Amino acid sequence: MTFDGVWCAIFMSPDAPGVWGGGGTVMLRCGHLLGGDDQYFWQGSYNISADDKVTAEVRARLHSGNASSIFGSFGDLKLTEFVVDFEGGAQEDGVYRLVGQVRGHDGLKMIMRLSR
Question: Comparing C-alpha atoms, which of 95, 102, 87, 89 is closest to residue 20?
Answer without folding.
Answer: 95
